[in-house]
Amino acid sequence: MAAFLYKAVDADGKVVEGELQAVSRDHAVNQIHLNGQVPIRIEESRQKNRGAPRRSFQRKSVSAEQIASFTRELATLLKSGQPLDGALAILISIAGEESLFSQHLTSIRDSLKSGNSFADALAKEGTLFNNFYVQMVRAGESGGALEGVLARLALHLERAKEVRSSLISALIYPAILLFVAITSILILLTYVIPQFSELFSDMGQALPMSTRITMGIAGFLQDYGWVLALAVILLIFFFKWQMSRRVSAKRWHARLLVLPVVGPIIKQVEAARFCRTLGTLLENGVPLLRSVAIVKDTISNHVIADGMDQVVNQLKSGRRLADPLTEHAQFPLFALQMIRVGEESGQLEPMLMQTAEILDQETQTLIKRALSLVEPVMILVLGLIIAGVVMSILVAILGVNSLVAL
């Protein structure tokens, strides 16, 4: 048996919290339901955390984890029959009136009271809720299925968090390896190698080509290293400026799509997002043409998003969805075939959702496979660089020793 801390809403709409003993989290949920309450949040109790805040809403910024928790909890409250305004009031009380996220929720609630839709209220919070989130909520409102859309959104955000966590975990070792290797190279070039310069110059002998190249690089870093660092910083800012302009960003997005490893991953991510969003819209009764137009705004890659304009135009002329997608969307062949089968069988909505699930799994596999290839390649390349630097010095030293022996 384990102890679980929970927060729930009782029959009067009041937030209650407590602790119970249960075999599992599902068992704890059932116990709360038997008490006539709707569980909002359940987490396993840890004795060492009893005195610490169990909530992350007191941070100075709003995290993706908070957005996912908010989405899941709001869906749960709406499913229990709470009105949207009442559900937001409950979540505000849970978050704590002084927290940053609570202030955002209060602003959203005030916007709703002013007559705005929930999607418009979310959009007014700036970058807190991205375009994908807002468009999904808008679709749920337009289709009268906000609760279901929020549940799917929560699932999407939770899976995105899992992917990010797995990526971060996988990148920790390569990042440490890269940092150590670059630091070692810089120490060699800016501190160790310059100490040999005077020795080699006193000998008055011509140095091997590899040694002259290494010494030249070391001298450049000593004299103009600050210029190189400034150039890198300016290049980063220039790239950010380029990505802020749609025309330039589209060119970069087009280049990314043709890269051997990155391209397929981007296509699968966008295809999964397209299938899940479109499937949700269609399940909620939104017409196909309008659904595709909404989905276009959820796609991050500008090349694929612009291709959706052609898809919409051809749908207006009476063509099936799979045909214009094949011509303009750059989606994986598997996704296109599944969509075609779904159309032909009259089961497009469930086929889209199933395709999204499969694409998500394949994307994670692709990412793990790519990272597993990057690590040995990085070790090999950095090892060759360090070995080349060391060998260039050893060759010169051996040459000096030979002269001394003569």
Describe the structure.
Belongs to the GSP F family. Its main location: membrane. One of its GO terms (biological process) is protein secretion by the type II secretion system. It holds the Pfam family T2SSF. The chain crosses the membrane at residues 171-193, 224-241, 377-400. The chain is mainly α and 406 residues long. It has three domains: 2-44; 64-158, Type II secretion system (T2SS), domain F (Receptor-associated Protein, Up-down Bundle); 245-405, Up-down Bundle (Receptor-associated Protein). The protein has helices at 25-34, 64-79, 84-95, 100-113, 118-123, 131-143, 146-192, 194-203, 209-244, 246-258, 262-283, 288-296, 302-316, 322-328, 333-345, 348-405; strands at residues 2-9, 15-22, 38-44. Strands 2-1-3 form a three-stranded antiparallel beta sheet. A hairpin with a 5-residue loop joins strand 1 (2-9) and strand 2. Helix 6 packs antiparallel against helix 7 (146-192), helix 7 (146-192) runs parallel beside helix 16 and helix 15 runs antiparallel to helix 16 (348-405). It is globular, with a radius of gyration of 29 Å. The chain starts with a strand and ends with a helix.
